[in-house]
Amino acid sequence: MLGALLLQPALARKDDRSQPMRVVHADSFSGFNAPNSITTLNGNVELSQGTLKITGDLAKIHVDGNQQLSRIVVTGNAHIQQLDDAGNLMSGDARTLDYDNIKGIATLQGQASVHQQGRGEAHGDTLTYNTQTSEMTGSSGNDGMVHMIFLPKPQPAPAHSAPAPASSAAAPAAAASSPAPQGQR
What we know:
The model is unreliable at 1-11 and 168-185 (pLDDT under 50). The chain starts with a strand and ends in an 8-residue tail after the last helix. By secondary structure, the protein is mainly beta. Helix content is 6%, strand content 51%. The longest helix has 12 residues, at 166-177. The protein contains one helix and eleven strands.
């Protein structure tokens, strides 16, 4: 079963993509920054790029032929989060996260979930989230279902009006407490 979720645009921070990708923490690493190479980060991995944060147990950072960080594959407790330009948080969790750094597309696999603050959430075996457009697709796993929750758009607070007179407020309460006529209960 395939499900798609396209909500009102909530684009990732525009300036995140121009920021450097930082390895905030890893217990160990092996590799180097060279064309067509992979650097492996082990243990308590944390990466950041502006408001984008990626964490997990193990990360493989792929550098393409132009020495551009092209892809990050995180396994074990994979987590991604990012703020949009309005300050709303998108977060996702899965067993594996494959993040295309060029296109800004996160593919979460294995008990995947994506939460969009104030908008909703999706759960499935595989979820693909485009950080640039907020478009999401999902597919089911063994349970045969994709689960989604759509949150209602917040309504503006009603304008304060003068309190109702005491006599009109008491009338509905009295009517509600009087018994219904026989046969209409």
